[in-house]
Amino acid sequence: MGSYYSDYLRHSSRLPVHDLIISAPMTAEQMKERLEQNYSEAKIEVYDLTGTQDHWEVYVESPVFAGMTRIQQHQHVMACFGPELKTGEVHALSIKTKIKA
Fold first, then answer.
1. Nearest-CA neighbor of 60 among 96, 91, 88?
2. What's the CATH number for 24-99?
3. What is the pTM assigned to this prediction?
4. Neighbouring residues of 80: CB distance < 8 A, sequence distance ≥ 6
5. Where in the chain are the domains?
6. Cβ count within 10 A of residue 44
7. Which stretch is the leader sequence (predicted)?
């Protein structure tokens, strides 16, 4: 006989238990590595604003941003964390960008 919770999951219209994905929050190091993969020649700084690993501020100074508007630059950075922003693993992302000469 299963627990109420396991019975609920098994018989509900929600995802089956084996399809549930639980991931640990991103660390500052993981955030920085992700940015370095996309901006190899950049100056990158990452700050955990609340200590909860879901509210971040990133600073990216890169030549990749040449010719982009500020909004395009920020969209470019946000795209690096698309899946995490969708799931809420990254709940808040403050972005500062600069064109590296």
1. 96
2. 3.30.300.90
3. 0.75
4. 34, 35, 37, 38
5. 24-99
6. 17
7. none
